[in-house]
Amino acid sequence: MTSNLSFEQFCDEFNDEQICIDALFSARWPQGFRCPKCAHPHCYEIHSRRLPLYECRSCRSQTSLIVGTIMEGSRTPLRLWFQAIFLHARPRGISASRLAEVMGTTYKTAWLICHKIRHAMSASDAGELLDGIVRINSGAYGKPHNPTVFRHPQKQPLLAGVSMDDKELFSHVKIKHVPDDYLIHDRITNGGKRDFIERYVAPEATIISAVILEYSPDRYRPLIQLCQQAGNWINYMFNGIGPKHLQSYLDQFCFGLNNRERSSSPFHRLLQWSVSSLVVTYPDLISRVDHSAIHKSTYSKLLKEAC
Fold first, then answer.
1. 217 is in which domain, residue-wise?
2. Strand partners, 170
3. Which ranges carry the Transposase zinc-ribbon domain (predicted)?
């Protein structure tokens, strides 16, 4: 199992492009080839390129091994992609600057690979709802040391939810960055709570509490502490993150927690999600809305009015 391998041992096991091609083929088509267009089970292999093409014997359409995966359009060798996926599947993860050193690539290439892998982690999180006994509580990332009555630009409100058993042991965790549409200053609205429940909680689940007020006497401290742990991990590993990409890092943190007790290795689970997740491009990533400038201008205006 790759979960028991050191990084050096993993690199020795996947030290050849053909080995990675075979592993990626098995992850994408575990029951054997299926044409993406007509689902025919047989194909011809064409080896005129760096990566093989597969031509359907029925409809004659051709598909590449990485088309329709997070690796689509990438010229980075599969061996390096596998290394990046392995390092992200470990509990601590890895930063883009460190990954660039390990793989010997530019920072921009490593940054893009990191975010594409986090995109697969987000898809994994979206595929599993909270069920059974569920608790929900508000939290925060980037809470300043000198808080005021207004929302500080560094403070990002969160909602955390957990599935647990009757002994209150966590089985699945979600932490979500609350959209601005569901905030009044730094307070989460009831609409934000309803949206979280509708999107992330199974209809048959038993919700025993959903607390959105920061200082409610009913707040569930383990979830507040979980948000703090996520923030500490982000600050330690990545030197802090702005609101634009915060959700990606929260999804990575939850992926690490949710896959610790799985029977399959985190690497194989992440590889499977990497070949089944929708393609995300560099323009998609950099075009995400960044509300930090809005928060800063609003915060400055409120402070001036308070003076």
1. 133-247
2. 164
3. 16-62
